[in-house]
Amino acid sequence: MSDSQEGSTRLLSDPATFEAGTDPVECIETHVSKVFIGRDRVFKLKRAVVFPYLDFSTPEKRRIACEAEIRINRRTAPTLYLGVVAITRQADGTLALGGEGEAIDWVVEMRRFDQDTLFDRMARKGTLSRALIEDLGDRIADFHARAEANHDSGGRAGIDLIIKNNDRCFGQLDRTQTQTLTRRSLDALDGVGELLDRRRDLGRVRLCHGDLHLRNICMVDGKPTLFDAIEFNEAFSTIDVLYDLAFVLMDLNHRGLGRLANILFNRYFDSTGEGAEDGDGLRVMALFYSMRAAIRAHVGMSQAEALNDPEQARRRAEEAADYLQSALLALTPSVPRLIAVGGLSGSGKSRMARELAPHVGRAGLGLGARVVRSDATRKRLAGVAWNERLGAEGYSHEMTERTFSALYAEVTLALRAGHPVIADAVFANPEQRRAVTEIAKAEGVPFTGLWLEAPPGVMARRVTERKRNVSDADAEIVEMQQGYDLGEIDWFKIDSSGARDDTLAVELEKLAIDQRHAAGV
């Protein structure tokens, strides 16, 4: 912190500066800013620092950065970011916030929010729910859809630059491992370079958030809200939308919340249609995930090297090493597989597909399986929101044919991208079951079919009680389905009338049996 900012720091640390008056002011420091938190307001002061990627050395440069922060973050958090306020020197030499004198510095003024709603705090407390994560997926998808596209940045060249910059920043991390990571990352880039350029040309490189981890997400007015996006260097935030998403997915996994990471991953892909037409998105996820872990690794090691407390430094260095391992594991090749989960409405098939998905796939990547769900596919084709009920035309024979054709196509693309897939549909028609089985044969991947069953009364109760579900099925549909001619079902049959965990345990056992058979054991 420059000597010229000591007066600004004293001013912002004084409770009298804030409208509320006497409450102590909390101060949070980062390497580029100091954040002063009062009862109702927050003021963020840019440090007078220079790094290779930013220059806050003069008051004018800090003013420009403050204005950019307001502009960038109002895209996602308009009610949080109130404006830019000058710190002025009065005629008597004292400093004031928004006074009449000469401006000597500038701050971002924000509305204070409840710090307990920060998603990193909620993750630690175990209060992040599926509903919150699904809403977050929708918010991120909507933000990316509205973000400004850039056809001159990103692509292969942009990712190559990040990989090589990471390599220069690894510091005291194990050099053998970092060299291996860099080599694997560049090899992976060779495999997807043209694809990344194509994604850029199609408008999937956009002015994103750039720093989308759990600590930069909170609840505002009952909705997940993204804040504190990167404003000081657009090269860091003009990126592929999936590279933006990869940060929060990696953060969830690092905290042991793989189930929530898988829910977010699938919700985003369902909302955006990523992977439905070309499968490109799934091909780049492993590299993007690895790069995000690599950045956390070298940032953590840099912080460890700067800490004076030996114990804190040791813990930070260990965490950095863990991130490095995650980055390496994410690039470990894996064999995809196809699982189909069928059953009449209310049998619990979609719930089980969701709970099974985190357990499937490469352990290092941690995203689990891509769940391709017929209900979500049907509504995407109809152009309606997931919670909007379809009319009879949405369930016509022609629409059902379109839905299953699209489902088969997306499953095939995901498998070809090297990703494990769970196909979730009623699969009441024997032809539908044969068709999904034939996909696995054609792609040369292991297949497991799971058929869930429950008494009609249980199924009717479930569809009546469930909330926030993309399916339109109700008790009348359950009754009608009892008359279906299901034909011979040669998939594993599972009684799903009991507790969710019991059904999941049986499903995992069936998968293990199939894995042993595939391996010739």
Largest β-sheet summary: 6 strands, antiparallel
State the share of residues found in helices, binned by percent. 40-55%
Taking the alpha carbons of the first and last residues, their distance comes to: 64 Å
Percent of sequence in beta strands? 15-25%
Under CATH, the topology of the largest domain can be stated as: Aminoglycoside 3'-phosphotransferase, Chain: A, domain 2
Number of strands: 17
Features:
18 helices; five-stranded parallel β-sheet; 17 strands; 521 residues; six-stranded antiparallel β-sheet; Aminoglycoside 3'-phosphotransferase, Chain: A, domain 2; Rossmann fold; single chain
Spell out the blueprint of helices and strands.
Elements: H1 6-13, E1 26-29, E2 33-37, E3 41-46, E4 50-51, E5 54-55, H2 59-73, E6 81-89, E7 95-97, E8 102-111, H3 119-125, H4 130-146, H5 155-169, H6 175-201, E9 205-207, E10 217-220, E11 223-226, H7 234-237, E12 238-240, H8 241-254, H9 258-272, H10 280-306, H11 310-330, E13 338-342, H12 349-356, E14 370-373, H13 374-382, H14 397-416, E15 421-424, H15 430-443, E16 447-453, H16 456-465, H17 475-481, E17 492-495, H18 500-518
Parallel strand pairs: 13-15, 13-16, 14-15, 16-17
Antiparallel strand pairs: 1-2, 2-3, 3-8, 4-5, 6-7, 6-8, 9-12, 10-11
